[in-house]
Amino acid sequence: RDVEISDEAVRGTCDDASLCKRYAVNVGYWKDPYLDYFVRLPKERKAPEISRGYYARVQGVGRLLKAFLQKTECNCQIINLGAGMDTLFWKLKDENLLPIKYFEVDFPSIVTRKIHNIKSKPPLSKPIMESHSGESLLMDAHSLDSSRYAIVGADLRELPKLEEKLKKCNMDPHLPTLLLAECVLIYMTQDHSANLLKWVAGLFQTAMFINYEQVNMSDRFGQIMVENLQSRKCSLVGVDDCRSLDSQKERFLQNGWETANAIDMMKAYNCLPKDDVRRIEALEFLDEKELLEQLMQHYCLCWATKDSSNLGLAEIAL
Ligand code: SAM
Fold first, then answer.
1. Among 10, 78, 185, residue to substitute to test ligand 1 (most atoms within 8 Å of Cβ)
2. Are the beta carbons of 235 and 6 closer than 8 angstroms?
3. Using a 6 Å cutoff on CB, does residue 172 contact ligand 1?
4. pLDDT by residue (tens digit) across 194-203?
5. Which H or E element spans position 14?
6. Cα(184) to centroid of ligand 1, in Å?
7. 60-to-6, 97, 113, 227 alpha-carbon distances in Å
């Protein structure tokens, strides 16, 4: 019963992410015409440091992801773990950057909601139909499988079932594969996330894993962040893995990955193209620079690679 209660709270976090993104998109931080179909615009204002944090997250992940697509010339797969209402598939299609196949995984109830949105909104379903060829597209309440896009309801802690479901959707372990986890591993125990990373490293010979989540959670600011989430019954059970940038890297290196990098989001923010950063900094006045820095130092971007095809994945940097 306890597991059920906290899983429910974890599922609720997918709306937080989409609402904050929707708010930032509405102010003009970046463009995403598809978020509107998944979440309403929040009534309450979001602080500018929150929007800047999301900007750094979306741009940072996006740059690493595009570097992978470039190295593989889109001859690859993407598997978005705990994808929530993420809109990346539609944005990549618009940019002509679709991989051979794009997969999403989340809890069945989240997937049901996402499929309902896709079915009822032509701007979401049309791109899936357009990129589909061959036999008829498979769709039920818990999964959707088309030629280029599949969404699977599964628990990331139950790996044999997950593998079976992905394989049923033609996931090909021989293709270079990008795994993406944005604020997902932190909700799993140390053992569950280690097993997940090990499973991926064992299954794919050529792969990159991008992980974005909280870090440095043992200091005072981190503790306040943890308490905040706990007050919503959402326990960050993976918080011990997020003690430091080093522990983020170690987790990959100890579970079958060849290279691992981790930077905090302040560093990531400072790596982003200066002209665009200047543009977004002019959108909203931010008087608490220190708060922004503190917030950014408590999130990190970590990416790990294994590269038996020698595609040069180890060279990928922000
Ligand atoms: N990655 C999305 C984004 O950045 O917008 C959503 C992030 S949300 C904070 C975390 C997501 O991970 C939720 O949609 C949740 O349901 C999913 N999740 C967490 N633990 C999971 C598990 N064990 N199995 C499947 N999905 C999980």
1. 10
2. yes
3. no
4. 999 999 999 9
5. helix 2-27
6. 5
7. 29, 17, 27, 27
pTM of the full structure? 0.96
Give the separation between CA 69 and CA 149, rounded to whole angstroms. 16
Whether the predicted interface score ipTM is above 0.85: yes
Cα–Cα distances (Å) from 229 to 106, 198, 235, 296, in that order, read 20, 28, 6, 17
The secondary structure of 140-188 as a DSSP string is -SSEEE-SSEEEEE--TT-HHHHHHHHHHTT--TTS-EEEEEES-GGGS
Q: Is 10 in the pocket of ligand 1 (CB under 6 A)?
A: yes
Q: Sign of the CA dihedral 234, 231, 84, 1?
A: positive
| Per-residue pLDDT tens digits for 207-258 | 999 999 999 988 999 988 888 877 776 777 887 777 899 999 999 999 999 9
